[in-house]
Every structure is written in structure tokens, then in C-alpha cells.
Amino acid sequence: MIKLLKLSEGSEADIYIQKILGVEMIIKYRRKKPYLITDIDEDLRKHRTKKEAKMMSLAHSNGVNCPIPMVISNYSIYMNYIKGSSLNKVLDKIKDSEFFEVGKLLFLLHKAGIVHNDFTPANVILEGEQFWLIDFGLAELSSNAEERAIDLLLMKRSVNKKQYLYFAKGYSESNPFSEEVNNRLALMERRGRYQDRSLNMK
């Protein structure tokens, strides 16, 4: 009997580790939502599973360090196991300059025409000296500057100023669209501060 070990439980999926033919694999299984009509639930889970696997495959083929989907079923993705620590657990243990590589990771993703939509330290794994991007559940095809800027904003809100400075340098190096994205990010931040002031005045 092949044993499954649950590693984590998310809002819509469980993550398991399983050894198959001596190789450790990660299995992401999308759970049934009891509050949805069965047919709708099944169609939604199938669609999201296939879409996530497609985003991962496209990212990997464009040089992004990320898991490779090996087997795709209706509700599950079997992928290689990236051993290491999530970035949010080692923020205070690594050099600020290492965030340059995290920025390059996001640039490669955007260059491939993909936005992650949850680009936070929790979804970046440090294995040895390499950074890996995981959890493509919200990823979409997009070259929209504002959607790209959201990925930067999520990371900016999660790290300190010096870490983000290196991250931004890594993202912007040899990046033909970085100016547009950074301008959009600045606009979003100004818009956010204006909204905060408006709320405080009420």
C-alpha cells in the first residue's frame, strides 16, 4: 500500500507527498466543495486543475524554476518535490542581496506572459542556492502592466525596504517592460494612499 502524507491544507486544495517508484512526488488535490451543485463543482475543479498544470508547464518551458506537472487527473496534479524552505520562513536568515534572484524569477514569469497573482514569500522556495516558484492556482495568462504590478506589490508588502530594493533590481535588469510596470505600481500605491486618507476623513 502506498502511503500518502499530508503536508498542508489550503482553501481549496490539499498537498500530499507520496513516494512512487522510490521518487518523492507532490500531489495537489482539489477538494469537493459541498456547497456547490455537484456538476458545477466537478467542472470547476477540472478546469482549475488543468489550467494550473498548463501555467506550470508554460512557466517551466520558459526558464522559470517551478515544479513540473508529471501526471494530471481530473482533480489532481502530480509534480516533482521541491525540497527546501519557504522564503517567508528564512527572511531573516538570508542576505538581502539574494532577493535579486527572486526578482529575476518574477521577470522570467512575466516574460512568459504569465502573472502569478499570489507572489508572496510563502510561494517561493529556497532549495540550496536556488529559488523556486510554487502554487500556480491563481496564475493567468496576461501581459497587462497593472496585473504584473500586483505581483510586485504583493512582494513589496511582505519584505523590508532593502530586500525589495534588490528584488526590484533583479526584476528590472534587462527587462523591456519594467518601466511601465513600475510606473503602474507607483500609481497603484498613490491611489491606495489616497483611498486610505479618504477613509480616515470620514
UniProtKB/TrEMBL annotation:
A single GO molecular function term of this UniProt record: protein serine/threonine kinase activity
Assigned protein family: Belongs to the protein kinase superfamily. BUD32 family.
Cross-referenced InterPro entries: Bud32, Kinase-like_dom_sf, Prot_kinase_dom, RIO_dom, Tyr_kinase_AS
Entry-linked SUPFAM superfamilies: Protein kinase-like (PK-like) (SSF56112)
Record's keyword terms, sorted: ATP-binding, Kinase, Nucleotide-binding, Serine/threonine-protein kinase, Transferase, tRNA processing
Catalytic activity: L-seryl-[protein] + ATP = O-phospho-L-seryl-[protein] + ADP + H(+); L-threonyl-[protein] + ATP = O-phospho-L-threonyl-[protein] + ADP + H(+)
GO biological process: tRNA processing
Organism of this sequence: Candidatus Mancarchaeum acidiphilum
Origin superkingdom: Archaea
Annotated protein name in UniProt: non-specific serine/threonine protein kinase
One Pfam match: RIO1
GO cellular component: cytosol
Domain spans labelled Protein kinase: 1-202
EC number of the protein: 2.7.11.1
